[in-house]
Protein: Ribose 1,5-bisphosphate isomerase
Amino acid sequence: MTEQGVPTKVLEIAEGIKTMRIRGAGKIARAAAEALKIATLEYGGPKDVSSFKKYIGKVADLLISTRPTAVSLPNAVMYILSSLHRANPGTFDDAANTVVFFAEKFIDESINAVKIISETAAKRIRENSVILTHCHSSVAVSAITEAYKLGRVLKVYSTETRPFYQGRITAKQLLENGVPVVQIPDSAVRYVMHEVDHVIIGADTVASNGAVVNKIGTSQVALAAKEARVRVYVVAETYKFSPTTLVGEPVPIEFREPTEIVPEAWVQKHPRIKVLNPSFDVTPPEYVDAIITEIGVIPPQAAILVLMERMGWALDKIKQGGLTKIKFEDYAE
Ligand code: RI2
Structure:
């Protein structure tokens, strides 16, 4: 337990998300839900609803400050906190039980969503397909594996995904699942695209207009796919759709340390060379053929319908003038 009363385990999760020991939009959302549960179970402050709400709001703010781009993180936190808000608990025990219940519900539903999406996506893959994927998306790996089990995947091109090389995780996991995989540098995407039948990628955030924010390089992959008339499928759970984009908020793009691209010694040796390390880019809806969610396959232009169906609670908050730059600590009051 720290001085501010936040359990060490919760701080470790926050640090793990920040340093990308815990990564992937779905995983960080589930880790945040788990952290809120741990924070509740280990709460040692005054046992009244108001003190507890203030504390849990502080933990929520800490968690969402770790990484800015994947909306799954604030959506998971918001889902749990808004459930607490709506439950309007009269006692500390009720409040604590509510947080634990909805944190577990989020995690269960998230895991189930990945399963449904994988089964749905597998049906879209033609027999003997060559697939290309970028970065490491657990939903994409699961969908490709499902399609492979149905005998539909010949091989998968997996990009390395510089600078963090998440593509190596993809290659390793696909291979463990028995799927033939070819690792390529990001710059070889257009070279192999003529062989590819489907591009399957995950998402960190889907905007209300259907634009997909995903790992840097995704938009180049989509561009090469469009040129070669290859279909691009995005596999994404509904909690990766961003309600705040509906009121014009841009999706913040994370910029990471130059040392992820070049070694520290190189930076020191060439101090006047600037290094830019954006972690994500935006693929416009025209470059995406379908977004496959747990509630169905939609054209990207129908993203708004997903927001209406699944994010009603968030949209209500927007109507009340809140949510955009929300501080969870205030919201929990
Ligand atoms: P799943 C990852 O971001 C990748 O951009 C990936 O496409 C996306 O999250 C979704 O991942 P990062 O955490 O939820 O590696 O499908 O920066 O696993």
